[in-house]
Every structure is written in structure tokens, then in C-alpha cells.
């Protein structure tokens, strides 16, 4: 029986052709890191099941923010389009998406921030931050790293190269 080829979504206006693959690889990295701590994620890969439930059965949203360490801010997604076009309407995404997500994990290979999604929504509505359109396909607001460190449920700093400590007070 022949296998179907794996098709990547087409984002013709993405800054890098590998942006989708980069996100998948980061998601796998986070899954492996969490698995070492006994937290096993069951990711959903088909569009049908992601729309129906979310990224995974556990309700964890994972976002790769490759430049957050150098910019000093997290770029929190609220809307997206498949391509940069004035004719296309923005679709709710990220923290605004209505799915099973309750935990929002964002960062890069040096640092991860784990937030209650409710916190990010409350922050967004309380602060009413300026929105930034990136490449005409992603709409975000910025959360300074200092505020992220203060308000995250957990910060996992991997920059030392050591495995993160977990447990009470970690």
C-alpha cells in the first residue's frame, strides 16, 4: 500500500520557506522536553482535528518565537491569514482561537514561557496593546520578556545547557 506524501501548508508570503517546518521541529523539541518530565503530548496533525479540538489533546498551544531572546519580547499571535492580501479577512488564531487550549507555551531553544491562556487574554484586554502585522499574514502584540518572566506560570531557561529543574519551588 502506497503512503501519502506529507504536504506542508503553503504560506507564499512567509519570510522563509522553512517557517512551517521550523515550527514543527520546535514543537517536537518541546514535546521531548516535556516527556522527560512525564508530560506526554498527543499532537493532532490533520487540519480537520486541529480545527475540531486544537494542536493536541492536552490543550497546550506551542509557539516558536525564534527571536524573543534577542528582541527582549514575546510576539503573541492573535490573528492570521494564509497569504498577504487586502481581500482576505483576518482569522482568529493564537490566544484568540476558540479551541481546547488552556496552556500557552512560547519561546525558543534557549527559553520557554508557560502561561495560562486566560492570563494572556486578560492581559490583552486590560492593556489593549498595539497590534503589529507581520508579513501581512500574522497579527501579534508584544509582551516584554521582563513581564513574561513575572507573569508566566513557569519559565524554563535552557540557555545554561543544563536540564531544567522541576518540582515544588523550581
Task: Give an overview in words.
This protein is globular. The strands form 2 sheets. Strands 1-4-5-8 form a 4-stranded mixed sheet. A 4-stranded antiparallel sheet has the order 3-2-7-6. It contains 5 helices and 8 strands. The protein has one domain (19-157). With 170 residues, it is α+β, with helices and mostly antiparallel strands.
Short account of what is shown:
By secondary structure, the protein is an alpha+beta fold.
Give descriptors for this structure.
170 residues, alpha+beta, four-stranded mixed β-sheet, four-stranded antiparallel β-sheet, 5 helices
Secondary structure topology:
Layout: H1 19-35, H2 47-52, E1 60-64, H3 68-71, E2 73-80, E3 91-92, E4 103-107, E5 111-116, H4 117-127, E6 132-134, E7 138-144, H5 145-151, E8 154-157
Number of helices: 5
Mean pLDDT score: 86
Low-confidence spans: none
Order of helices and strands: HHEHEEEEHEEHE
Cα gyration radius (Å): 16 Å
Beta-strand residue percentage: 15-25%
Structural class: alpha+beta
What's the number of extended β-strand segments?
A: 8
Strand order of the largest sheet: 1-4-5-8
* Overall structural domain count: 1
Largest sheet: 4 strands, mixed
- What is the CA–CA distance across the termini? 49 Å
Shape: globular
Helix content: 25-40%
Amino acid at each position: 500500500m502506497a503512503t501519502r506524501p506529507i504536504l506542508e501548508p503553503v504560506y507564499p508570503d512567509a519570510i522563509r520557506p522553512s517557517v512551517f517546518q521550523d515550527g514543527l521541529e520546535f514543537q517536537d523539541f518541546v514535546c521531548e522536553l516535556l516527556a522527560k518530565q512525564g508530560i506526554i503530548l498527543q499532537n493532532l496533525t490533520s487540519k480537520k482535528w486541529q480545527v475540531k479540538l486544537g494542536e493536541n489533546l492536552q490543550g497546550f498551544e506551542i509557539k516558536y518565537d525564534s527571536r524573543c531572546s534577542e528582541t527582549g519580547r514575546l510576539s503573541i499571535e492573535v490573528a492570521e491569514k494564509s497569504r498577504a492580501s487586502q481581500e482576505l479577512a483576518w482569522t482568529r488564531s493564537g490566544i484568540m482561537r476558540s479551541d481546547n487550549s488552556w496552556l500557552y507555551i512560547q519561546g525558543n531553544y534557549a527559553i520557554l514561557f508557560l502561561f495560562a491562556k486566560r492570563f494572556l487574554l486578560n492581559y490583552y484586554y486590560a492593556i489593549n496593546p498595539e497590534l503589529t502585522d507581520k508579513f501581512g499574514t500574522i497579527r501579534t502584540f508584544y509582551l516584554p520578556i521582563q513581564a513574561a518572566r513575572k507573569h508566566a506560570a513557569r519559565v524554563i531557561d535552557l540557555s545554561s545547557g543544563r536540564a531544567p529543574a522541576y518540582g515544588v519551588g523550581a
